[in-house]
């Protein structure tokens, strides 16, 4: 499996890259090769202060390369110019990546929590499963919030095709996962279900238990985003797994989808799985 690791070369990104346990977790789910990429903003031009950005960033990536190679991974580095999320997605497509990873400083101390624009735009448009790796904020010496990335999973499902696509990620996450909480949120707008949601969750739980993943069920009522975030608080997962509804032009114009809001507002790591692309 190939992964694109996007970094802005900040101390926070360096903390994630330097964490040996995080790299071990990625290796356990099948990642063998990394493409490290950093993007020079298109508004930085030659002749401006920082005109040697490409050279300086390549030097930094070469330092990161050593960390990955020492951990046993194959590594290629890329310094590109343009709009970050577009260039990251373009690289993921061109190298045939199966996962994109981006760091985030985590929740804001303000009431309305947020992540950076690049991570938010990737959540809207990613062509691969996207792992948002949370890093401590408001500290001079940041560290990752969770070293064992996939040890305790929270999987949110509305039983849609998108959610099922996300569940299939357990086919490789199972090599690092020990526990999973399966959560379904019923809303007043939902039609009356033909069967008990717990029965459907039980079927999914059976598959995970066959892989020796300890599983619990959680059926809630209310606003999906609020309830998924409440489930995160209650169960303390290392990563929340959700499916997205794709990346059409229209969808990019719409704000507030459940998956994007979970990516933006969750305290911990989030893995978002988009629909498979049809050639």
UniProtKB/TrEMBL annotation:
Gene3D superfamilies in UniProt: 3.40.50.12370, HUPs (3.40.50.620)
Domain of life according to the entry: Archaea
SUPFAM superfamilies: Adenine nucleotide alpha hydrolases-like
Protein name: Universal stress protein
Domain UspA: from-to ranges: 2-132, 150-274
Family of this protein: Belongs to the universal stress protein A family.
InterPro entries (alphabetical): Rossmann-like_a/b/a_fold, Universal_stress_UspA, UspA
């Amino acid at each position: 499996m190939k992964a694109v690791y996007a970094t802005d070369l900040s101390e926070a990104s360096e903390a994630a890259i330097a964490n040996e346990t995080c790299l071990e977790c990625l290796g356990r789910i099948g990642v063998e090769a990394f493409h490290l990429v950093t993007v020079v903003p298109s508004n930085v031009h030659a002749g401006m202060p920082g005109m040697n950005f490409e050279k300086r960033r390549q030097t930094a990536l070469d330092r990161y390369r050593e960390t990955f190679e020492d951990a046993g991974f194959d590594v290629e580095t890329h310094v590109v110019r343009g709009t970050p999320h577009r260039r990251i997605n373009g690289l993921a497509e061109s190298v045939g990546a199966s996962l994109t990873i981006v760091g985030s400083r985590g929740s804001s101390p303000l009431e309305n929590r947020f992540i950076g624009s690049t991570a938010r735009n990737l959540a809207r448009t990613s062509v691969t499963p996207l792992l948002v790796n949370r890093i401590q904020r408001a500290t001079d010496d940041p560290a990752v919030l969770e070293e064992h990335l996939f040890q305790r999973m929270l999987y949110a499902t509305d039983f849609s095709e998108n959610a099922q696509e996300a569940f299939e990620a357990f086919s490789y996450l199972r090599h690092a996962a020990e526990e999973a909480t399966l959560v379904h949120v019923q809303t007043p707008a939902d039609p009356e279900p033909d069967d008990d949601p717990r029965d459907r969750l039980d079927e999914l739980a059976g598959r995970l238990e066959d892989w020796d993943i300890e599983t619990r069920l959680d059926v809630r009522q209310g606003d999906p985003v609020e309830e998924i975030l409440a489930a995160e608080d209650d169960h303390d997962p290392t990563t929340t797994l959700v499916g997205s509804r794709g990346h059409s032009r229209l969808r990019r114009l719409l704000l507030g989808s459940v998956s994007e809001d979970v990516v933006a507002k969750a305290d911990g790591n989030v893995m978002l799985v988009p629909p498979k692309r049809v050639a």
